[in-house]
Design brief:
single chain, alpha+beta, binds uracil, 259 residues
């Protein structure tokens, strides 16, 4: 790949404008292969040079992928019409101009949210035909009933007549009001409406996995992490629901109990 200007490389991969990059460079906040570069028009090789802004490496790859642990109170949109967008929570050095949330969580929902500028990947995840499974943990207003397992497995019908695909659900061993549910589709308010259809009510909801990608325990609410290429590929390797429940119930139930 031919050489390009440092400011172009950074502005195409972050939210910084060229004038901001010029100021950062003049303050010694940008390094190329570990050496401070005070000139923003410095020529770099995007394939071989290692660029750091404020100590964060800017990856050469064309697209960026971020996993956020969404907190309550933010909306999954790039617009701010109905509330504060999750986009405000992304640190500048991780953010690019064309990023958007690849999926929706309600304003009061928590957990795993993928944000990217890769439209093709987002389409693969969101496309109804792909059936990327997503696992949620819910806190219910009333105790879980064992009949939910067969009702959800049979494909429940919502109050407005919408048919859902078969879904797996499992109650926590030590808490009747906590359950994991795995969906293979993403209808509007689907988890809440499914539990409403069986006479219960979801008080809290947290998405804990998307495809084979599991929300890391250490990623606090409102925090973001950049995904590696192999993590992104993991999205398309589904998890075994029973193994997941056994391995992760303790960890994720603590999130909902303490919040
Ligand atoms: N289902 C819901 O009801 N809400 C969400 O945020 C996600 C799935």
């Amino acid at each position: 790949m031919s050489e390009i200007r440092l400011d172009r490389f950074i502005s195409e991969r972050t939210e910084y404008t060229r004038s901001q990059i010029k100021i950062l460079a003049s303050k010694g906040k940008i390094t190329v292969n570990g050496i401070i570069s005070r000139k923003s028009d410095f020529k770099i090789n995007p394939e071989t040079d290692c660029i750091n802004v404020l100590g964060n490496e800017i990856k050469a790859g064309r697209f960026r992928y971020i996993l956020m642990n969404k907190p309550s109170g933010y909306i999954c949109s790039t617009e701010e019409n109905d509330g504060i967008s999750v986009m405000n929570l992304i640190p500048s050095e991780m953010r690019t101009k064309n990023m958007f949330p690849a999926g929706r969580l309600d304003k009061d929902s928590l957990g795993a949210l993928l944000i990217t500028d890769d439209g093709r990947l987002a389409h693969r995840i969101l496309s109804p035909e792909k059936h990327i499974p997503k696992i949620y943990i819910v806190k219910l207003a009333r105790p879980f009933q064992s009949k939910y397992v067969n009702l959800f497995d049979g494909g429940i019908i919502l109050s407005d007549g919408t048919h859902c695909l078969p879904a797996r659900v499992k109650c926590a061993e030590n808490n009747d009001n906590l359950a994991f549910i795995q969906l293979n589709e993403g209808k509007y308010h689907q988890v809440k409406r499914m539990f409403a259809a069986v006479g219960n009510h979801v008080e809290k909801l947290m998405r804990v996995s998307v495809g084979g990608l599991i929300l890391p325990e250490k990623l606090g609410f409102g925090k973001c992490m950049e995904l590696l290429h192999k993590d992104v590929e993991n999205l398309f390797s589904p998890l075994d629901f029973d193994t997941f429940c056994n391995d992760f119930f303790g960890i994720f139930s603590a999130f909902l109990i303490n919040k």
